[in-house]
Every structure is written in structure tokens, then in C-alpha cells.
Amino acid sequence: MEERTLTFDGFAYTCRVLRHDTPLTEPLLVLGGSSQDRNSWLRHEKWLGPLGQVITVDLPGYGTADFLPATYGVDFLADALAHLLSELDVERVNLVAACYGGAVGLRFAQHYPERLARLLLVGMTTRIPADYAAAMERWAVMIERGETETIARELADRFMSPPGTGRVRKHAAVSRLVYQQIAGQSPEELRKSAEHNTRLMRHEWYRRGPVPAVPTLVVTGEHDTLCTPDMGREVAAEIPGARFLTIEETDHLAPVERIADFADLVARFCTDRALEGLPYCGSPESFGGALPPR
């Protein structure tokens, strides 16, 4: 395993690279949501490592990277990804991108189509829900007041499906984890969180435009109430040849609630294995027409 600190346009950021001697597919680049960092995927590496090279990253503005002013948006972060791949001498990747990482990953796909082998989007939408956008304005004020515990409880409730929605594995444990992670943020982490919220409000979350015709899978938790399955279907319908499926008994945090199953799904997708009949998923739905032969 190697960690490298790089600089893009004056901002330092850090990547984590896990290598395997006999790769089965193109390198895997994993982008988490705004509250995840390069180490959030360590528990998945048991299953992802044998695929080959696995890259996780704290882009500018996130994790241990430099603070990034909100004047820099999704386009800048997509360009930073391209810089990362050039520094690592990686031509093409299988890109797995969740939540805010999905917005950055999709923009990267639009700007750098030649660098994409496959695209897997998790909990992605074409729009920020109006009630979430309104909540971000309130959270910005609460961060200034130091009301972190209240924000942590509200965010945990947003990310997790409410009682009565349906069975979600590890619901209580993951809810506590989210709460503790947010409530325990340092002043610098809170500063980055506030700037992230401002970035979300100032810049386009989703921009309609050409997306490369590569194998694409859009995934949503069965009971995700933040980025619902229908929102995921809307994303899939915008991408040539995309497929959509739900991960059963999960919500917005499906990669954490079913770690082994999510990693298995990633491995299958990145090695072009069948996705039908999996015990932890709904049946794949096809959108956007057929892809040309690879």
C-alpha cells in the first residue's frame, strides 16, 4: 500500500493506492460522499483488492486535503481527478462514485471520457432535493454557532431511512456511526463541511451532457429516502446503455450496511460478470438503449 500527497493548482491532496500483482481489470478508483475519506473503504479491500489496483483519495476540500474555497466547484474536482490519474500514470479506470462523489465522477466522465472503462454510481440524483437544500442553509448557521450535535442528529436522520420505511441492515449501528463521525468533527473539519455546503448551493450538482458509452450501473438502496430509487432511475435514463438496480435491505448508506455484498457487486460489475439473480439485489433494469460492442 502506498500513500502519496500531490498538489493540484496549489491545493495539496492525498491518495491511497493498493496494488495487486495479477490485476483482473482496469484500476478501480473509488470516490465516497462528502463525509467519507480515503480510509472509508478499508473494510471493502478484502474483496476489492484482488481486482487489481484500488485507488481512494481525499480531494482538495475533503478529508486531510487542503481547505478548498467554495468558489471551486465540481468541475475543478473533476479536473483534480484527471490530475491524480496522470500523476499515478493510470490511463483508464473503473470509477465507483457515491453520493457527492457521484456528482464529481459523472462530471469527470463527461470531461474525460477517454479515461473511463466502467462507471458505477451509488445514491446519485440529477438534482438536490429541495428540502435538503433548505436544510443546508440552516446547517451553515448552526455550524457558525457550534451546534454540531444537533447537525449530527439531523444529518444522521437524513442519511438513514426513517422508522417504518422497511428493514435496513445495521440501521442502528450505522446511524450511531454517522452521528459520532459528524459530532466529533474538529474545527477544521467543520470549516470544510460548511464550505462543502456552500459549494453545493453555488455550483451545478448535475449537468446534462454527453456521457461516454461505457458499461454503466446506477445503484440505490432499496429504502433510500434521500436519493430514492426513482431518482436513481432518472440518472440511469440519462446515460447510454446504463443499468439500474437496488440493493435490498439498505438505504442511502448501502456500501456500509452491506459491505461484503456491495464489494461483490463492484467486483462482478468491473469484471463483466452477470448481475442477474444475486441474492442481495433487485433485478437489473436497462435504460438508454444498447451499448455498441466492446
Structural account:
- The protein is α/β, with parallel strands linked by helices and 294 residues long.
- The chain has two domains: 209 residues, Rossmann fold (3-Layer(aba) Sandwich), CATH 3.40.50; 72 residues.
- Helices cover 38% and strands 17% of the residues.
- It contains ten helices and nine strands.
- It has a nine-stranded mixed beta sheet with strand order 1-2-4-3-5-6-7-8-9, sandwiched between helices.
- Strand 5, helix 3 and strand 6 form a beta-alpha-beta unit.
- The protein is globular and about 50 Å long.
Give a short synopsis of this structure.
Helix content is 38%, strand content 17%. By secondary structure, the chain is α/β, with parallel strands linked by helices. Strand 7 (216-221), helix 8 (229-237) and strand 8 form a beta-alpha-beta unit.
